Structure formats: C-alpha cells, structure tokens
C-alpha cells in the first residue's frame, strides 16, 4: 500500500512541462507592455515635464497638415484691355439746331487753330487736328476737336453760340453716323497755356486725365464778344483771344 501512494505523488523539484513555460513567458510580456505604457516608454512617444505624452519633433505631420501649409496657387492676372487707336478721317458735320448741314471736316496733324488748321478753315470748311497735340477721330474715345470760322470764309459756325445743352450733333464718317449730345459750353483763352491745355485735353477741362468715353469739341472764335468788350488782341494768324467751345458726348452710332 505504501508503495502505491509514493508512485502517484510528484517529487519535489520536478521540471514543468513546455505548456507551463509558454504561459509564464506570455504573462511576463503582458506585464512589461502594461508597465511600458504607464511609464511613457511606448515606441514613438516621449513625456514632457508635466508627464504628458508628446510626438517627437522629427515626426512628420499628417498629410492633411502638410497640404494646409503649402502656399496657395496664384490666380492668373487678366491682361489689360487694348488701348483704342484713334482713327482720324474725313467726315461731314450736321448741327440741326442752327441749320448746319454737310459741313466738311478735314483732319490734319497739329493742334487747334495753328497755321495748318487756319488754312483749312480759310477754305470754308472745318478742321480737325489729331496727333500728340491734337484730338482723336469721329466716334473714338477721347476728344474729337472740330474748329471752323464764325465770320470769315462764309462763317460756317456763325451761330455756334446759340447751340444749347441737349442739342444733337451728327458726324458722318465712312459708313457710320455718330450722334453726340451737347452737355456744356466752355470759353478758351489763346493767351493762357492752361486754358489751351484744357481745350485740347482728352477729357475737356481736365488735362492728364485718362478718357473713358468719346466726346466732341466744336470751337469757333468769339470775335464779336471780344470786340464788344474792347478786347482787340489778335495772334499772328489774326485769331482773337477767346473761343467759344461746345462740348458733347457720344450717345449712339448707326449705319450711314
């Protein structure tokens, strides 16, 4: 009987089997992992002085953050509109309110009432200067300058002072008719450089201002008014000091 009990009782110091060893290793690994997380030793993290976990400085930001730090693409800048090219050309002038009809307007390179322009006016027609010191052509953006005599050479613009605000002026050039409406009256002094610059400006009365619309300046002498005031001054071409200018703006264009 005693021999049987000794045969089934395990001896002290006997070795554990393979299953027992694997269980011990698994328990140790789990314990070490838990301790590492609690102490902040997990890979890719560190702890600040206050004990909070931090991402290492060398770590790259998420893709969304990298995209947000990229500079925005520049929008294309639209090209400025082309500058209109003046088209000086012969034309015919009609001012119904004073009975002017089919007055020929001759373009020339120069400025208002210079020698070349005066010679054209002496033929009984109107003159229209263009170029650096002149104006533009019919219907063009800028100042379309038209000058003619009031007393001599048949006086085609003898009644220009009677033209009033709102009156219509028609200029026929090529296959188009340009309609202007009178908006104001100005007086120009041939003895004032400033006054002449205002008359010849692309925007009448505003030298240096960039034009945005088409305007017309109809100009003739103020000889009767100057003489009545005792002002007999004349320039080398016989022009009195003052001229009467009627300013109009383009309101429509139609086929001739």
From TrEMBL:
Which residue intervals make up region (Disordered)? 1-20, 44-96
Keywords recorded for this protein, A-Z = Hydrolase
Record field: compositional bias (Pro residues): 73-88
Name listed for the protein in its UniProt record: Class E sortase
* Protein species of origin: Streptomyces roseoviridis
Its taxonomic placement starts with:
Bacteria, Bacillati, Actinomycetota, Actinomycetes, Kitasatosporales
């Amino acid at each position: 009987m005693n021999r049987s009990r000794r045969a089934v009782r395990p001896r002290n110091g006997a070795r554990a089997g393979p299953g027992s060893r694997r269980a011990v290793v698994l328990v140790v690994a789990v314990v070490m992992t838990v301790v590492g997380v609690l102490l902040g030793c997990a890979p890719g993290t560190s702890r600040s002085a206050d004990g909070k976990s931090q991402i290492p400085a060398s770590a790259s930001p998420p893709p969304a953050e990298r995209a947000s730090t990229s500079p925005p693409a520049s929008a294309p800048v639209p090209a400025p509109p082309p500058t209109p090219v003046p088209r000086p050309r012969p034309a015919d002038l009609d001012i119904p309110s004073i009975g002017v009809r089919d007055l020929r307007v001759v373009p020339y390179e120069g400025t208002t009432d210079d020698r070349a322009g005066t010679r054209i006016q002496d033929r009984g027609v109107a003159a229209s200067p263009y170029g650096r010191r002149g104006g533009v052509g019919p219907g063009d953006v800028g100042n379309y300058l038209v000058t003619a005599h009031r007393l001599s050479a048949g006086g085609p613009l003898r009644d220009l002072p009677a033209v009033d605000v709102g009156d219509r002026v028609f200029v026929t050039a090529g296959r188009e008719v340009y309609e202007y409406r009178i908006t104001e009256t100005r007086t120009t002094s041939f003895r004032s450089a400033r006054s002449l610059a205002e008359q010849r400006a692309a925007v009448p009365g505003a030298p240096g201002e960039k034009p945005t619309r088409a305007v017309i300046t109809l100009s003739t002498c103020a000889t009767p008014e100057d003489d009545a005031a005792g002002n007999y001054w004349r320039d080398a071409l016989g022009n009195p000091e003052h001229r009467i200018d009627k300013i109009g703006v383009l309101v429509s264009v139609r086929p001739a």
